[in-house]
Amino acid sequence: MTSSVFRDGLLDGQVAIVTGGGSGIGRATALELAALGARVVVAGRRPDPLRETCALDPAHRCEAVVCDIREEDQVEALVDGVLERRDRIDLLVNNAGGQYLTPAEAISPKGFRAVVRLNLEGTWLMTHAVATRAMIPGGRGGKIVCVTLSPHHGLPGMAHSSAARAGVENLVRGLSTEWARFGIRLSAVAPGPVATDTFLAKYPQQVVDGSASTVPLGRMGRAEEVAWLIAHLASPAGDWVSGAVLTVDGGKDNFQGAWPPDAFVDAQGDPVTEARRG
After folding, report:
1. Within a domain: residue 58?
2. Of 31, 137, 142, 186, which is least surrounded by CB within 10 A?
């Protein structure tokens, strides 16, 4: 398998960890990085999806490791194992995360903590372990990319995830300054609605059917489109990118829905305009 966007061998010699690599954006990212020559460790809680990802890599550059990013001992074992086998970690993609669709008034304290622990604390545990064990020692440096969410003006129905992902983005901004002296570059990639198998199967049909209409470009994204942006950041083209939140959502972050809305058009389907005097 070769990349449809980047040149062969672009990431030769790099070692990457992709959390949540058993499906969706994580799987697409792992396969794209492997296609470009990187050795990729795909991590997640369930072994079968991880093995499925590795089976899709014809170059056999992907390796599956079971890890629950919420558990500090498992995170440390994952990072130490990669260093023992590969002697380096050049890229960490914090993709693992999750949430559930529910009105804010129905979120229990336990449910809120579970989402924050997975999305924010899990990201911190992975980031801290990779930085302190692999990237800071010896002045090697590296890149850390965190996958968050768009839109940024709040996500009704997912207040817990909106809060956690905002925390991740501010963590990225702060660490990009604090760890620049170690040569570590941190960025966040914030996708809008992406038509992954999980999204199409998990969410209510009304949400699936209506998601494209909330995107000005009129369609949902593809996992590969997010993976390409992450690969760009991993490449030399991303060497001067740090502390940035890069939104990839077809314009959704700027407007909730396609323009013009049905209520804002005239009989010809054109946007209405304000009547001017004089």
Report:
1. yes
2. 137
